[in-house]
Specification:
Helices cover 79% and strands 0% of the residues. By secondary structure, it is mainly α. The longest helix has 37 residues.
Length: 291
């Protein structure tokens, strides 16, 4: 059981470091690339807010995106640090036994998580000072600090209200954030087409387990059948057959290009989930309180 707890701690620590690396990569983008990514995000937001956005003229679309760019940027700042705060608090909670030797600070894991997140925000702003076209702003550190605090509060509330589903909820949020990052920022020939497909079944798995934490035996197998069926549907152009060929959302969900390699990636992702389920099943046979 001790090994299970240690694995959980290490996975959370890896998630924190991984998300810090994602934030660092955002900040490492020169001003032109950062602005382009912000505008792409703004267009997505604009389409959600305004159903007829695609019917607007190019000039009107660009003007609207420019107007909401500041709000999009600052909201993105706060959101990415809210997720960091959530992960930091959860990690500190799991490492609480080890942190006790730090005295008063170790007992106040919320404060420790906030200080760590705010410290990283300050270092990240300093990092931006050396990126072409970017700047270092104290107001952004304050905004990021508030985002970290919001994530900590959210995590504390979730622990109180939904502890049984918390880890799946965290997994869903983190993996979804990674998938969005891959979709928006990664344009290579490996991570985007292959790793993204491996992770998408993990996103679905966490979403289902967030609602139904126990039960549904062989869930990874069912997920593979579902993902493979969607891929086969792309071969037959299911979206057009259902009369949704002109729907952007339907094209995103159902896809439009069949590829056997996608099915292989889904299989790899489901195999990893199967191993996880088996390990969880084995660990559940050990009595609690093994630490």
């Amino acid at each position: 059981m001790t090994n299970r707890y240690m694995l959980k701690r290490l996975l959370l620590l890896a998630a924190v470091i991984g998300w810090m690396m994602v934030i660092f990569s955002f900040s490492a983008k020169p001003a032109d690339e950062s602005t382009q990514m912000s505008h792409e995000t703004g267009r997505i937001v604009a389409r959600i807010i305004n159903r007829d956005f695609n019917d607007w003229s190019v000039e009107s679309q660009s003007s609207y995106v420019e107007r909401i760019d500041f709000a999009v940027r600052k909201s993105a700042h706060a959101a990415e640090y809210a997720l960091l705060g959530l992960l930091l608090f959860l990690t500190a909670a799991e490492w609480a036994g080890y942190l006790k030797k730090w005295g008063w600070l170790g007992k106040h894991r919320g404060l420790m998580a906030w200080l760590a997140g705010t410290g990283y925000a300050a270092s990240d702003e300093l990092h931006q000072y050396f990126v072409p076209g970017r700047s270092c702003q104290f107001t952004d550190v304050l905004l990021d600090s508030v985002g970290v605090l919001a994530g900590i509060i959210l995590c504390a509330v979730l622990i109180k209200l939904a502890s049984a589903r918390l880890y799946y909820m965290i997994g869903f949020v983190v993996l979804m954030a990674v998938e969005i990052y891959i979709a928006v920022c990664v344009h290579d020939q490996f991570i985007r087409p292959y790793i993204g497909d491996v992770l998408v079944v993990a996103v679905l798995y966490c979403f289902i387990r967030m609602i139904i934490p126990d039960g549904i035996k062989h869930l990874p197998f069912y997920l593979f059948l579902f993902a493979a069926a969607v891929e086969v549907g792309q071969y037959f152009d299911l979206a057009s057959m259902m009369g949704l060929g002109n729907s952007r959302i339907a094209r995103i969900i159902l896809g439009s290009t069949f590829d056997w390699k996608d099915i292989a990636c889904y299989g790899a992702g489901c195999l990893i989930l199967y191993v996880w389920e088996r390990r969880k099943c084995v660990c559940s046979h050990f009595p609690e309180g093994g630490e």
